[in-house]
Design goal:
It is built from 9 helices and no strands. By secondary structure, the chain is an all-alpha fold. The longest helix is centred in the middle third of the chain and has 29 residues.
Amino acid sequence: MADQLSAKDWVDLGLKILARSGFTALKAEPLAKAMGVSRGSFYWHFADIGAFHAAILDRWREVATEQIIAGVETAKNQDSGEDPLAVLLRLTFGRKLLLEKAVRSWAANDPRARAAVVAMDRRRLDYIEELLKQAGLAEEIARARAQILFWAFFGFALSDQQLSPERQQDVLDELLRIVAR
């Protein structure tokens, strides 16, 4: 079975474990046991645990940032008529954010994870700012409002408060109204 597993299989399991159990659970032995294989299979794909952690952080970047940006860009290119900021809010606030919490917890304890989070925060802020400028806001206003949206997202991501879908949509509509005018 070990030769049937890919590095992606390990990373996908790692993301699930990270979201469920935190960064301290990202160890070769328990992951191998969960996959039903020997630890050698893990080391076939990764030189060491550091390489595995780097792959986890790369995949998090892809899932939590780049795929969302691609979704917004696709909506823009399809001329759907939907406001790109509304698409961004729907894609980001409509997700379960256990992985976001777990990566940020990891970043508080690990310099490599911290560097990945800082880089992704910059990427996200720059993208939001660009969307706001495209919507016609001046650069300084776009920068300030991008920060407000960013902070609102993290308030949501770190909150355990659940809203009904209708109430959440009302809040997102109001947030969009506040930052986009």
